[in-house]
Amino acid sequence: MTVSRPSGRASDQLRTISIERHYTRHAEGSVLVAFGDTRVLCTASIEDRMPLWLRGKGEGWVTAEYGMLPRATATRTQREATRGSQGGRTMEIQRLIGRSLRACVDRQALGERVVTLDCDVIQADGGTRTAAITGAYVALVDAVNSLMKRENLRRNPIIGAVAAVSVGVYQGMPVLDLDYAEDAHCDTDMNVVMNDGGGIIEVQGTAEGHAFRRSEMDAMLDLAEKGITELVGLQRAALELG
Amino acid sequence: MTVSRPSGRASDQLRTISIERHYTRHAEGSVLVAFGDTRVLCTASIEDRMPLWLRGKGEGWVTAEYGMLPRATATRTQREATRGSQGGRTMEIQRLIGRSLRACVDRQALGERVVTLDCDVIQADGGTRTAAITGAYVALVDAVNSLMKRENLRRNPIIGAVAAVSVGVYQGMPVLDLDYAEDAHCDTDMNVVMNDGGGIIEVQGTAEGHAFRRSEMDAMLDLAEKGITELVGLQRAALELG
Amino acid sequence: MTVSRPSGRASDQLRTISIERHYTRHAEGSVLVAFGDTRVLCTASIEDRMPLWLRGKGEGWVTAEYGMLPRATATRTQREATRGSQGGRTMEIQRLIGRSLRACVDRQALGERVVTLDCDVIQADGGTRTAAITGAYVALVDAVNSLMKRENLRRNPIIGAVAAVSVGVYQGMPVLDLDYAEDAHCDTDMNVVMNDGGGIIEVQGTAEGHAFRRSEMDAMLDLAEKGITELVGLQRAALELG
Amino acid sequence: MTVSRPSGRASDQLRTISIERHYTRHAEGSVLVAFGDTRVLCTASIEDRMPLWLRGKGEGWVTAEYGMLPRATATRTQREATRGSQGGRTMEIQRLIGRSLRACVDRQALGERVVTLDCDVIQADGGTRTAAITGAYVALVDAVNSLMKRENLRRNPIIGAVAAVSVGVYQGMPVLDLDYAEDAHCDTDMNVVMNDGGGIIEVQGTAEGHAFRRSEMDAMLDLAEKGITELVGLQRAALELG
Amino acid sequence: MTVSRPSGRASDQLRTISIERHYTRHAEGSVLVAFGDTRVLCTASIEDRMPLWLRGKGEGWVTAEYGMLPRATATRTQREATRGSQGGRTMEIQRLIGRSLRACVDRQALGERVVTLDCDVIQADGGTRTAAITGAYVALVDAVNSLMKRENLRRNPIIGAVAAVSVGVYQGMPVLDLDYAEDAHCDTDMNVVMNDGGGIIEVQGTAEGHAFRRSEMDAMLDLAEKGITELVGLQRAALELG
Amino acid sequence: MTVSRPSGRASDQLRTISIERHYTRHAEGSVLVAFGDTRVLCTASIEDRMPLWLRGKGEGWVTAEYGMLPRATATRTQREATRGSQGGRTMEIQRLIGRSLRACVDRQALGERVVTLDCDVIQADGGTRTAAITGAYVALVDAVNSLMKRENLRRNPIIGAVAAVSVGVYQGMPVLDLDYAEDAHCDTDMNVVMNDGGGIIEVQGTAEGHAFRRSEMDAMLDLAEKGITELVGLQRAALELG
């Protein structure tokens, strides 16, 4: 395969990843995550008031909201607050983030609390949802750790790690962690969320140009597994800094 | 494997499928599709006015809207028109239906026209989105055929067939075409959209209980392929009735 | 009078009416009613939670919601859930349905429960609101009967029957039960709701082309009374099937 | 019949009616109408820009909007602008006002212009919609007259007069022009709109307590005819003041 | 200075002011205030139910809502209830009115009650917000007095008087109480709210054409102080009429 | 005066100010401004499509939108996109920012273009609106400079500089540039916008605790003038970095 990626990266190479904790001071967890030029601010907020439908069940909830600053994108995007509602893409992404993070939380151990993960894209260059999940995990751990210091929880509500990456088929070649230049021209695009034990939490694959084969799917899943293993390592390293 | 499904079906067995064309008289295509007790009315409407962002490009558009009658469900669901907006689940589903059907349409051949696929759930028992995609395909073909009779299109805009089915892991056993009783208690749920050439158009898998393994994913994809092959046969049979 | 109706019906002749009970399985009452080509699905849902303003008064409430599938009409109508609100026509109709059905319910006997009548038009050919009222009555009776089997009500909350029909003046001739071809060209259009004792519950008459005379009004009311007597008979026959 | 009305009026007696023209200075027509303690400000605005669906047809449009100041009522009503939408009652009323006034306008003669009748209730004591129609007619005539002075219309777009009144059955006695004390306790309530030739434009009757008989309906229509004849006289007298 | 104002008024002269109490009968306080051709209906409504965030604190709340009838203005303004939300200007004004009136209320003395000041502009000719504040004060006093007659309050919740006026620089000359003809062409526009002790409650100054100097600001504040002293005298005179 | 500020600053001392240009890469101007712990991202976007009401007038427009990330604040604030509308405070602030920046733009020189200034608060600690105005000015200059390089403008649309600061009376002492700890407990709060020639563009003063005297107002305006002179110097220094 002699196809070369616009960024010059190897097909199985992540962009430069950075995870900056304590980025803002009010939130219980606050992480600025960068996947190359994609930058997402992830904050975790813990509140005691539960939604009505969950009260009195002795377990907590984890939810997410996603937003994009109007000029995170190449041309200005209308502010959803001005439009009067969140669009379908936003809803889809924040539902995905919420489901993904709930997969690493023991809701009984959390107790009757809600953790809200706000993921706001400061600058977009492809892969904002996978960066958001990867960063939100670190913010969540920080928030839960501060909770455990404050309150007397019986056990740690965090059960394992969660990270996400996009994979795709670019000009016939399976590639890892697409940036915008690739994303806009690839045939197939798949977002994969996995835990640190190699278990799959979410797979969302879409054929953009033409339908894809099982063999392509297998190659993409292999790449995703490799990438997520690296991301979990980077999350761990960031969290060890204390 | 000695697990038995609530419905008594074999693990690779579809529910009883029916596809009733010309169900209502105004729409260019109108299909009542049933996957067991799940019943969805799919209509295809062809209109000449294009959305602004597509005008003058010489190609058409295919979009979908999804709705659920308030009492399609076991307990009454609030009407979205009363609530004032479509929920996240609705948006996610209608975006999926639209993307899936666009995969079998040559938009240049369609010309500057919009086809809207309205999928309204009359009765829900699991798998409404996969039934919707499968039925909407038939409505789309009927609508395009009526268009071809009326107008002088250069070539048929329909390129292949599209169908969808859900698969999951129920009590450890991979199963095809989940009904509500299974869906509510399964560990993993995956919706697969494929074309009649065995190409994958969409895969959306979610771990409900615990993360799933690559081997489970493979087994589910095998089941999906088998089911979709049968569904494409049923679509073809329905369309041959004329 | 030698005017002939587009349908060939006599001036005092209803369209073919059908009332199909148990049309869907989840609702306490579920009726598909057809007035010719007009088809409306009417479901009755009984819920225990009362609106705030009625709590603790020891009596129930009956309310209605009306919707139209986007392609129930000759050209596609925008979905109200997408538009973000119900239109004035929808509100007017659902308020009429609610008031009409409350006229046959003893709200003390019902107890602190809400019955919601959802009337969704599957196919429209004129007279959807009168078909909805006529069908919703049967769904309501089915729902209340199932409630009486389950709970120990002191007395039957249903007091009499309610049905509705449209009448109009078409090319100078008073006619019963207008279909769309007549409705679109008539001079005057009136919807009448009556009970089985011949009492008038609602009259809504509108001059479309020119103002109407008392004599025309009298002729229309006579036709309505005849039509409603027949409809009440058809409701009774449907309910006797058990 | 020895029933006495709360106001001491005879059963066929209108409240004190006043029609004050030129109440505010900006609108082309501006009328403060009072039916007893019910006071409604009716303004008529003429604009050249047509709604999209009517452009280029060579005819005009007449439409109405209705509002209620928050403290027009005995207890404060939430402002619809704050709530974010107009309620069903408001929509129903403004649709009625618009239809009623269109019945006295020759839309071809009006030319491509929109007349908007804004009817805002300053103080409510029953019968706000009938007062609004009666007052809006006078505002409409003033606005059209000012238009005719300014522009060279071929013929007067106003064809006849329109007025409205409520009638009801109060403690078994048919009565004219209900005030709130009667309206809140009457068995039947009917709004009637007629033209100056005695033709009926709208009839909207609702049984509040129990269904009503044809004989009651006839008595109410007689009262309405008498009341509207008086109202048309009062409109004419007001307009002659110049 | 030889500049003359469009109205012929002296630079420090208010328009003709009138304050008409008991303008409508339902509200606890109801005042029609006129600053020249600007006419605003101000009603004060007292309710016992507190907003959630204030319950149980033993103190009351004063809030305001502002509206403009569609044809209060020279050309018709769209109704905010139709548009679906209040505009930024409306929100800004009603927040200002609320803050201003809270400055003269002892919320502990008021007890757990909400006073809502509805200010609806019947006719606009500049200075609607300052007229609204000046009139709302009188409505508030009337409402609180009626409350004190009904309930046993320990002390009068009204602490001093509040009035407001606009000032500006018109063709280089500082002027008091701008009407629309001045407002539309002035260089600077400032709204000042003061109490009867000469204390400043709000100052909102905006350079329309070019930035203004401290000396201009001083001249405007002097005019405002003179005007507000007169307005407080007129409020007192109106309230003494009983 | 021996009152000491929570931060230990002198009464006429600004917080540490930083202005970081080119903070994100897509916008024509992108500035992260910090007033102590208050951090606001200001982007300037230039677009060619004008709002309808300004088309064909040969002049441009400058507008602003303001947002707050949910966890910019000590406790989580609901996202306005989720709520479905911008609140009154947001609207008030973005209107102020827009007016302030328009004061330094020659709209004829700009030509038919819209500049949108998006000011998003990343972290809040008092004074977000004055930081936003001060930062947005720098983003605006960067955007206009890039426009002048690209297009052949006849003259520079930027006419002077604009900056803003808050002043207040804290425990009786007039102070400059309030942080949250002061803002929450001060008696009076005033936002002042000035240009680099010492002209006043906006003054918005509010008595929080009790009304303020002219002498206090004078002292606050003196402080504001001093602070804005320093801010204009910092803007100039930042822009000279190139």
Structure description:
Six copies of one chain form a homohexamer. In chain A, the strands form two sheets. Chain A has a five-stranded mixed β-sheet with strand order 1-2-3-5-4. In chain A, strands 7-6-8-9 form a four-stranded antiparallel β-sheet, with helices on both faces. In chain A, 32% of the residues lie in helices and 29% in strands. Chain A has a single domain, classed as 2-Layer Sandwich (Ribosomal Protein S5, domain 2). The first copy, chain A, has six helices and nine strands. The longest helix of chain A is centred in the C-terminal third of the chain and has 27 residues, at 214-240. Chain A has helices at residues 80-83, 88-102, 107-110, 128-150, 180-183, 214-240, and strands at 17-21, 29-35, 38-47, 61-68, 114-123, 162-170, 173-176, 188-195, 200-207. In chain A, a hairpin with a 2-residue loop joins strand 2 and strand 3 (38-47). Chain A is of the alpha+beta class and 242 residues long. Strand 9 (200-207) of chain C pairs antiparallel with strand 9 (200-207) of chain D, so a sheet runs across the interface.
Summarize the entry for a quick read.
Six copies of one chain form a homohexamer. Chain A is built from six helices and nine strands.
Strand order of the largest sheet of chain A: 1-2-3-5-4
The number of strands of chain A is 9
- Beta-strand fraction estimate of chain A: 25-35%
What is the averaged pLDDT score of chain A? Answer: 95
**How many angstroms does the end-to-end distance of chain A come to?**
43 Å
For the record, the count of structural domains of chain A works out to 1
CATH homology superfamily of chain A: GHMP Kinase, N-terminal domain
The interface involving the most residues is between:
A-F, 36 and 36 residues
SSE topology string of chain A: EEEEHHHEHEEHEEH
Task: Please tally the helical runs of chain A, counting DSSP H or I stretches of 4 or more residues.
Answer: 6
